[in-house]
Amino acid sequence: MRLVLASTSPSRKALLESAGANPVIVPPQVDEDALLATLSDLLPAQVVEALAEAKLASVADDYPDDVVIACDSMLLIDGELQGKPLTYEETVKRWQFQRGRKADLLSGHCIRTPDGTTKTFTSRTQIHFGQVSDADIKRYAASGEPLNSAGAFTLEAMGGWFIDQIIGDYAGALGLSLQLIRQALYAAGYSVADFLPPATPDK
């Protein structure tokens, strides 16, 4: 039994690896923009959960004997969900809007265990953006780092310069809540240790 991550996010992969796991990475096949267009009547947490469920559904059948996890993150600010900025211009515009403000990063998760049980949940982390200068915003946007990141920032990399505070689930702010995944594994009868390499006794 393996841990399969239906995500191409470097942050989620690095988070699991730093926590001792060695996930199988499988890119999900989902048209996010098309799906989002059908979700306008849902609450913000329901939107990110629906995206996570679609990503899991796109890969889960190929891994029936493994634990599969899919995630999707979006920033909620002024009651509006913000996805990835994708371009330099949109990143600059986004940061000029959100600097000095606070917002919630919502990360929807969907996990399916080999017995076919599926559980969906959302982590919520409050992000306090720094009062960042235009020069730093433009330099950060030009790096390309935030273009494909929810909320136009990556907390664990260059974007860490520009975040004043986070309140809540730190791992959730990276797009994958280890705490909530652990709880879901326990509820399904598994342990985190099932997905870690064997311990090596001290000699």
From TrEMBL:
It is an enzyme of class 3 (hydrolase). The gene is maf. The keyword Nucleotide-binding does not apply. InterPro entries: ITPase-like_fam, Maf-like. Nucleoside triphosphate pyrophosphatase. May have a dual role in cell division arrest and in preventing the incorporation of modified nucleotides into cellular nucleic acids. It is found in: Cytoplasm. This is Nucleoside triphosphate pyrophosphatase. Its EC number is 3.6.1.9. One of its GO terms (cellular component) is cytoplasm. GO terms for biological process: nucleotide metabolic process. The active site is at D72 (proton acceptor). It comes from Corynebacterium choanae. It catalyses: a 2'-deoxyribonucleoside 5'-triphosphate + H2O = a 2'-deoxyribonucleoside 5'-phosphate + diphosphate + H(+); a ribonucleoside 5'-triphosphate + H2O = a ribonucleoside 5'-phosphate + diphosphate + H(+). Its main location: cytoplasm. Keywords: Cytoplasm, Hydrolase, Nucleotide metabolism. Its cofactor is a divalent metal cation.
